[in-house]
Amino acid sequence: MPDATPLNRISLSNQIRDLLLKRIMTGALKPGDRLIEMKIATEMSTSQAPVREALRELETMGVIESLRNKGARVRIITNEELRQLYDVRAQLEAYATGLVTELKIPLKSRLTESVKLMKKAARAGDSVEFAESNTLFHRIIIEATGNQVLLELWETLNVKTRTMVNVSRSSRSLIELAESHQAIIDAIRAGNPKKSDAVARDHVLKNKPAADMVDDRQAGAE
Amino acid sequence: MPDATPLNRISLSNQIRDLLLKRIMTGALKPGDRLIEMKIATEMSTSQAPVREALRELETMGVIESLRNKGARVRIITNEELRQLYDVRAQLEAYATGLVTELKIPLKSRLTESVKLMKKAARAGDSVEFAESNTLFHRIIIEATGNQVLLELWETLNVKTRTMVNVSRSSRSLIELAESHQAIIDAIRAGNPKKSDAVARDHVLKNKPAADMVDDRQAGAE
DNA sequence: GAGTCAACGATTATCGATAATCGGTTAAAA
DNA sequence: TTTTAACCGATTATCGATAATCGTTGACTC
Question: What is the pLDDT of residue A5?
Fold first, then answer.
């Protein structure tokens, strides 16, 4: 029987989670925006319960934050946290890049292809599409390590970063950014794991935002 | 007024989450054990809703897994995944240890203290207490970097690891394991970041379990 | 005896309603 | 005018009930 019906639909809470995640990543929902349970429930024609489950997931992922009895809002990532995010990402990417170099996994054509997409998006000034292909580039490398744990960790970091990054940047610097990936491709090709490690680390750190000048000890609520 | 009542209790779902987490970490709940929503709800004298929210959080954290319409169970971490976990942890710990060395953050006394606790637990054969103080040792280093993102990431990895690790190990090897932390303390003290990085990485990798001989391509369900 | 299928018990998924809480606002009191 | 207190609308937290789904059991057919 050539599979008739898609028997198991996705649960409502998962659908809601994915929808909200998409809106946050594309910027339709911005940092600080409130997520009101009944509003979402009504929009999706469901009850409150699946919405709450979705919100809890998003909260655990770190993309929203919710205060007891006060509801949830899209998490505001401080500059300092963003910098920390880049530091950690740098380590993970360095490890992954070094590893795929050592294992001599052939990635050149796929990586080159994703850089093309990046450039195209950059020229079009499409920052969402750019983020998409940029993510693709790095995901190709991480996936190639075969380390599923690493991939999942990196995904959540990446999601967090992107909730805020795609707000800024001119199309000029986007093109430069796209081109800067070539160094990674070359390093992998060259076959020196240590070198690849360093190049990938530098690539991430080069884009790490500068520290705020202000003496902001941003108060974090409980 | 000397604060009368603890106004904001913790939400039920959070209480449930913490309780279940504790049970999983201490081994009261073992990998594969089912988590039946109504059973938990009845035990806690609540309804099903908060339990489901708690389960969703645990699922996102990766400590349980749930299949549509079939419920949740404590996640069974395969040997392969455990190995991947160690690989990633090794990178994070190496980074953290190198960084605190570079920053010359004084940690010796606190680290030494936690090693004492480890040894004590090892002699007593108390594997839960051992895991506790072992975690403490590493957390001290990670925390000292001041990188909150790194800490959170490391915490979730650590939780995952511990759901399974505390099943095994003899008290003899526990003592050796405790003593092996001294090398890290010494490296930090010596003040060479590169060396610290390497020592910390090796420390983790030395405990990475061996690969299974079996050609198990463990099927992962949707 | 092996295979098929309907009915059953257990459990999850979702709903609709109620209780509790928060922030702000008005109105009375000082 | 400032302070205090009760009130109100909006929203979250929790409950109890119902619908949908799964695995299994046991009778029935061949």
Answer: 39
